[in-house]
Write a structure and sequence with these properties.
Blueprint lengths: L20 H7 L5 H18 L3 H21 L3 E5 L1 H4 L9 E5 L9 H14 L8 E6 L5 E5 L1
Antiparallel strand pairs: 1-2, 3-4
Length: 149
């Protein structure tokens, strides 16, 4: 028995998979090795279509590295990517999530403005590694800096 023993069965008579109890056996089949291999191949094809390709991944990592270096020029800190970039689940037009950690408690009220100023200076820099445009600071519950590279 388990922790779910006392759960009531659905009154509709449907199983969680949407099938009637008597129909489940007629549609569930064990895949033979040939059909299983074909399912694995199709899954691999789908994953190859949606996961980032090497040039896309290199470009995104280069942009993340660039912004990390800019932030670390502003004040002593460590900057990390999180979310879809390190997981490689980002979409082609997806953002790059970064988080910065600093031991300097006095930065609490100024860090976002310092980063914004740095990005605005890069926006004017014709020799910048990447073209920075449309720098915006959005005052949110937690300081959030939106930038387009």
């Amino acid at each position: 028995m388990g922790e779910h023993e006392g759960w009531a069965q659905p009154q509709s008579g449907l199983l969680p998979n949407g099938l009637l109890p008597d129909e489940a056996a007629s549609v569930i089949q064990v895949l033979d090795s040939e059909r299983w291999l074909k399912a694995e191949q199709k899954t691999a094809e789908l994953i190859a279509c949606i996961q980032p390709n090497p040039p896309s991944e290199e470009r995104r990592n280069a942009v993340a590295d660039y912004v990390q270096r800019l932030i670390m020029k502003c004040f002593p800190c460590q900057v990390f990517t999180f979310g879809s970039v390190p997981l490689k689940t980002y979409l082609p037009d997806g953002d790059i999530d970064l988080t910065a950690f600093s031991k300097n408690q006095t930065l609490k009220d100024t860090w976002a403005h310092q980063v914004r100023d740095m990005l605005e200076n890069e926006e004017k820099n014709e020799n910048a590694e990447f073209h920075v445009k449309e720098v915006q600071y959005i005052q949110a519950e937690v300081g959030s800096l939106v930038r387009h590279l």
